[in-house]
Amino acid sequence: MSDLNTAMIEKYRNSFLKEVEANVEEGDWVKMCMQCGVCSGSCPLGPHWEHPPQEIFMMIRAGKRDEVLQSDAMWMCTSCYNCIVRCPRELPITHIMHGLAHYAKRLGLAPKNQPTAKFAQLFWDNLVKSGRVNELKLGLSLYFMNGFGEGIKTSLKMKNIGLGMVKTKRMNPMEILGGHGVKDKSGLQKILNKAREIEEAKAQGA
């Protein structure tokens, strides 16, 4: 259990809803859910959710902290925004789902082998180095994230798409050597470090 997770349990003991309202993006909207189920019925991935959105909101209000934060439900959201468009109370459901996923990640409670969580980390690690996404390296990282053997199999399956991207100049094989990035990389790191400071200060003062 991470130190931040322990601190949050102590601070918001017996009130998971207040914890969500204080620490999750748009979390103060959770109490507005009237449990109509329109969000779950509108979601193209609805049948595959461990807990659909309105169930997640009820679990938050019921104080089921571990069940929510350790679930892979939030990571299923594809940001199609059907739920937001159709919600009769206009809850920002997509933002709440991503906020819960991010909060679970910060606390060290996100499912270890959740594919979306792993891809999000790979994307961030790729982006943060140069300020631009190196698509070739990102693709290879994604293919090989479950081991060398799986990486070879996936690469062979995708070879025609890769060759097509090279032919149409959508991908440059030379980017494997480093690729392009923003001009002021040190400035980028300063911005990111400051953002981390602000987020940590907010977490400590929440």
Search tags:
globular, Fumarate Reductase Iron-sulfur Protein, Chain B, domain 2, 2 domains, 0% strand, 206 residues, 12 helices, mainly alpha
Number of domains: 2
Question: What's the CATH C level of the largest domain?
Answer: Mainly Alpha
- Mean pLDDT, rounded to whole units? 88
Number of strands: 0
- Put simply, the count of helices is 12
CATH topology of the largest domain, what is it called?
Fumarate Reductase Iron-sulfur Protein, Chain B, domain 2
Radius of gyration: 20 Å
CATH architecture of the largest domain: Orthogonal Bundle
Structural class: mainly alpha
Write down the overall geometry: globular
Helix-residue proportion:
55-70%
Order of helices and strands: HHHHHHHHHHHH
Outline the biggest β-sheet. Answer: none
Strand percentage lies at under 5%
Low-pLDDT residue intervals, each spanning 5 or more residues:
none
Tell me the span between the first and last alpha carbons: 19 Å
